[in-house]
Amino acid sequence: MALPDISVEHLPLHIDTDLPSHGLVRVPLALQFTIVNHTEMVQNIEASIDPSEAFMFSGHKQVFFRILPSDDQTLLYNLYPLIPGYVKLPRLHLKTPQAPTITDDVVSKMIPSHIYIKPQGKTIINT
Q: What does residue 105 show for φ and ψ, rounded to 5 degrees?
């Protein structure tokens, strides 16, 4: 029985994400994207992040940078969850003229799209 051929495509960039497994409403959490250049060329990158109704956040909303060959660049965001539940994370977009294979679809497959945010617990005050 013959198996079908599989085409494996080498991606010039890789994105590592550092994010807690869950968060708590009104408690800041850190989101870190590390973009790694696996090529022998300098990559010019425009990174932007979409606003989100589920979070207030700080960090670069749009930034231009270069990544040297076999090097990486880290983007750090501080997220402040506003609503509980399984919420959508702010979406990262990359534009890379030297790597046209890195599209929004490819980026979205490399990074998480949602996180579970727990509601705040109520404190009981004894009087």
A: -65, -40
Alpha carbon distance 36, 11 (integer Å): 10
Cβ–Cβ under 8 Å, residues 116 and 89: no
- pTM of the prediction? 0.86
Confidence grade of residue 102 (pLDDT, cut at 50, 70, 90): confident
Residue type, 27: V
- The residue to which tokens 């990559």 are assigned: 43
Transcribe the chain into DSSP letters: -PPPP------SEEEEEE--SEEETTB-EEEEEEEEE-SSSPEEEEEEE---SSEEEES-SEEEEEE-TT-EEEEEEEEEE-S-EEEEPPPEEEE-TT-TT--HHHHHHHS--EEEEEPPPPPP---
Q: How many residues does the chain have?
A: 127
Alpha carbon distances (Å) from 35 to 2, 41, 42: 38, 14, 13
Supply φ then ψ for residue 5, to 5 degrees: -70, 145
